[in-house]
Give the backbone structure.
Amino acid sequence: MTRPQPSSYVHDALFYASDDELLTAAVPFLSEGLAKNETVLLECRGHVNELLTTALDDDPRVVCLPRPGSSGRPAGTIAWYQETLQAEVDGGVSRVRGVGEVDFGTTPAQWAEWARFESVINAALARFPLWGVCMYDTRVLPDEVLHAGERTHPHLLTPRERIANPQYVDPTDFLRSIPPQGPDPLESAPPDVDIPELANLADARRKVHRACLAGSAVPKRAVTEFVYAFNEVATNALLHGRRPVSVQLWVSPERLLCTVTDHGTGFDDPLAGYVPASSEPPDQVAAGQGLWLARRLSDHVDVARNSEGFCVRLCTER
Amino acid sequence: VTFGEEFHTALGWDGHLLLLHKTETQRLAELAAWVRNGLDRNEKVVYVQDSRSDEGCAVLVALAEHGIDIEAAISRGQFEFVPPGEFFAPGGPSRRIERALATTGAGVRMSTEACAMSRAASAGMSEKFERVVEELCRRYPLSALCQYEQQALSGTSLREAAEIHVAGIRSPQLHTAREGAGLVLAGELDLANGDLLAALLGAACEAANGHLVLGMRQVSFLSVVAARALVEGTQRFRDQGGQVMLVAPPATTEWFLRALGIDRMAHVALEEGG
């Protein structure tokens, strides 16, 4: 088995079809971490955590954490990992080892969103001494998720060996390979808010806020966050796009959908907004923070060029 | 403060105020609030404008439209126009303010538009005039409302205006006031007032004695642009060892500041709201 240097992020995938395969591959990996006094984390489904802790003789040093995935948002999850890993580094830990199962959700849109997460963390966590193994249960996960997993991990862990993954794709290329979401079905109806030429952000925020509260069952706090996300995307369009900037909002009981369109060409960095741009400790509010916050404060952010120009689509679900 | 609702100040209308307006409707609404506040307190209102000018007539009409019985106030001697030529003459401001104070047991308030100021005074006079007014506000129970178009101020002129009125900003989305040795910010901080915020924080830092306390309880909204203004406006002060304390922002504003790492920046402390 090739052993990576502890100074940077190592991201492996383990595809398994039985508990035996899982234990044969994961237990030696975790035991080695415990023997070296590394921090050992489990972020799997409950019964998988149980299997592993039992196999590790209920070692009290093993820490179980919630699974990353569809109950959260990728940008927020990345921020959480960065803060947690920074605290470990500051505390003098030489390396963190973890095995986890991402919760990919139940819809194709969620599968795509969390596949992007699996790819982006290769760049976002690159500077941290984390050796993470993402476990894919081939008995239950859909083919789309499994196929994406094969392209987002530089190495594969198997019950027999650890090998370089020839199918791995660089995050930028991987994100470009996922087609942007087409128009949302909600967009076929007339919008609940329609601002053809955005001029006053405070007025626009109030219109969006009122319409969201009036027409949806999305919790009030999530609505507030959605309005903050909208403000950042609209600010970017006013500052960096080509005017006029138009805003359209559709509200259903279950979902909030907002498009902000300018007449410019937009940007071409698929990783934009997934990673906070500040240094540690922070000393400035760097460019790119607005889109990063928009990704943290709404469920989905899609960017795409269309016939009108550059469109950012924000969505939050109940 | 409640997120999503129209911004209304709770900071009052006293002291040396800078009314920054983007539209005539905004200007007249804020002016009416300031006049009403003075009349309710039996203060005398001196408005520096020719009563027969178009601007003077527009003010009378607007005050009446905002429900103020301005004719009655004029007949009581509680509201008067003073022609700019007379007011801005050497010694004019103090002479007129002292005369007004002699006729009322309460305070006096005085307002002028930047255009009247610039028409009546030579270049550079407006800043000199502002310093005279600042001195008068310190000496007497005087509230001065200086009216400027927000679009007309940028760069140096914005910095100068912010410096003189640092604790008296009355703009559409941002009001300020002094609280002890600190500065209270109220309103929605975003792209519309990022430059103003940075300018006034720079001025507040100049006046602070190594420790700047910013009361943020009434900051109902804050964007990345405003957070950047907060950081950059206090940068030099902090680089020289000055401490900035952000006090009691509402929960979402606090989350936003923490997410951007503002609370972990050098010489910044964030005190949670209760």
Observations:
- The two ends of chain A are 45 Å apart (CA to CA).
- The CA atoms of residues 103 and 294 of chain A lie 22 Å apart.
- The first strand of chain A starts at residue 10 and ends at 16.
